[in-house]
Design brief:
The protein has about 280 residues and is mainly beta. The chain has helices at about 5, 15, and strands spanning about 40-45, 50, 55-65, 70-85, 90-105, 110-115, 120-125, 130, 135-140, 145, 150-165, 165-180, 185-200, 205-215, 220-230, 230-240, 245-250, 260. Strand 5 (about 90-105) and strand 6 form a beta hairpin.
């Protein structure tokens, strides 16, 4: 298995880069990843409505909310607020509907709807979701989520990560984050669940579950593992790929647990390995 392909799993971590916290929630985050000491600028073609009874601001028509280097664009933006004991306004939830984009200097996330719960630190993007950078693309049929307090990013429903000719798909992809000494979030483990397919120009690998340990560089695949390269195929129950050494191992359960079909190489005339061309 190509080491570059297994690294595709790590690209799920890009989901959280535009959302990764720079300040604690206690400081009053407005938009994802921006501290509360920065003003939020809201624009809309069809105006902004202030509903005091519902404690909400509604921006309609090419609405745009920007704070720092993050912007949320949508047909409609709704910001729900509450008043603090000091009389200040605290935005606790932002809903975006219709042609949603979440934009940072290096990435764009797309969907039909987004809900950001500021207090819980949860952003859920639904409806034709995808994330794009200069080199990578991640899409999911159901949702792309970021759970700040649990240090998780999740792509659900036919989740697909692509880079160049390499492609990883699974029902669910989950990235686990940790913080380095500088306070920056980084991926330390990625889990892939159900119907996993890793595709490269050389081979196709299928399994039921995959775990990639970023620290050790080892990707582990379990459950009906099948590795196919051309007409050759290997089947087992457990595969371990060390990305640092480039060594792949396939295991089974009990005698005969690993099975393989290796087809002989064929020349242009269709003869098998070992045939020779002799002049007449």
């Amino acid at each position: 298995m190509s080491a570059r392909v297994c690294l595709l799993i790590v690209q799920l971590g890009l989901v959280a880069l535009i959302l990764s916290p720079r300040q604690s929630l206690a400081q009053g985050i407005g938009l994802p990843g921006q501290s509360g000491d920065k003003p939020i600028e809201i624009k809309a073609d069809d105006g902004i409505e202030w509903q005091q009874k519902n404690k909400a601001y509604i921006a309609r028509g090419n609405a745009r909310a920007a704070q720092g280097d993050v912007a949320v664009l949508a047909d409609t933006l709704i910001a729900f607020y509450r008043e603090t004991e000091t009389g200040a306004t605290d935005i606790w939830r932002i809903d975006a509907t219709g042609s949603v984009q979440i934009v940072s200097p290096t990435q764009r996330a797309f969907g039909d709807k987004a809900v950001y719960d500021v207090g819980q630190g949860i952003l859920i993007l639904t409806g034709g979701t995808r994330l794009e950078t200069e080199t990578d693309r991640i899409s999911a049929r159901d949702s792309i989520e970021y759970w700040e307090k649990r240090n998780l990013a999740i792509a659900r429903g036919n989740a697909i990560a692509t880079r160049g000719e390499n492609r990883l798909s699974a029902d669910v992809l989950t990235a686990h984050f940790t913080k380095d000494p500088g306070g920056n979030s980084r991926v330390h483990q990625v889990d892939a669940f159900d119907n996993i397919v890793i595709t490269t120009p050389q081979e196709v690998v299928k399994s039921k579950r995959g775990v990639y340990d970023v620290e050790t560089g080892i990707a582990t695949l379990t459950g009906s593992v099948k590795i196919t390269r051309g007409e050759n195929q290997l089947n087992g129950e457990f595969a371990e790929v060390n990305l640092n050494t480039g060594v792949s191992k396939l295991f089974g359960r009990g005698p005969g647990g690993v099975r393989g079909i290796i087809m002989p190489e064929r020349n242009a005339g269709g003869s098998g390995v070992g045939s020779s061309d002799k002049g007449g």
